[in-house]
């Protein structure tokens, strides 16, 4: 574990295999649960968040562009992550899709650009060739300096091995669901062996874990909230995380986890939770890809209109 000698706490950033520094806590902005512009600005301006996670699919990239302009934080002090949706896979499509994300975010480079899923449209004739071509296109954009770190999301060991067979540059990042119900030890070990940084999302188990009796017991013991305990668990496992909230008080709560530490016994208690009880990845992801729904389709239909009218 990367530990500050002064207070024995994990550091506020990790260093990727290529030397790029990435904050250990970020703000998720998926379209699930809505979008709060004031909370994103508050996170950047008042709570010292420096990592924002988004995706073309979420429909929030353009909102984040305005949040960056409003918060006053320098671009070089931010770490921005976005993702490539399956309908944009393929050697000829990636360049245009990346340009779209850069334009919507109002930036000249992106800190990390990820393949969103190891799945393709059902009309695709060769899944693994398409994914391989997509990865090659990311490597080229990485070589051109448009991306500081290339990576994947929701990849299993098997998926990662397919990348390894054909790549020139191994992924620097694998973003996966990570919480006590999804403690993927074999995947963590594989990524560690390959020097691939794992980043977790849904650290609260979609809200299900904050009311768990054991989590509440630990929270009372360390005089913290259940959410802080769960985020701290992730960080002490060397897995940076991107909790999401549209409430400012929760946004602040989620990043205030660097002045306490869970004991080995408390970590082991959370490690022992039954696996697979909660999982975000939709079983019908293939249908979601094939439906060709608009980006941000889960956002309230008035969000965009109201935002650009103000």
Automatic annotation (TrEMBL):
RNA-binding found in the keyword field: no
Top-level taxonomic group: Eukaryota
Active site: 58 (proton donor)
Signal peptide: none
Pfam families per the UniProt record, alphabetical: Aldo_ket_red
Keywords: Oxidoreductase
Domain called NADP-dependent oxidoreductase: residue spans: 25-272
GO MF, one example: oxidoreductase activity
Sequence positions that bind substrate: 116
Keyword Oxidoreductase: yes
Record-marked site positions (Lowers pKa of active site Tyr): 83
Annotated InterPro entries: AKR, Aldo/ket_reductase_CS, NAD(P)_OxRdtase_dom_sf, NADP_OxRdtase_dom
Similarity comment: family membership: Belongs to the aldo/keto reductase family.
Protein name from the UniProt record: NADP-dependent oxidoreductase domain-containing protein
Species assigned in the record: Blomia tropicalis (Mite)
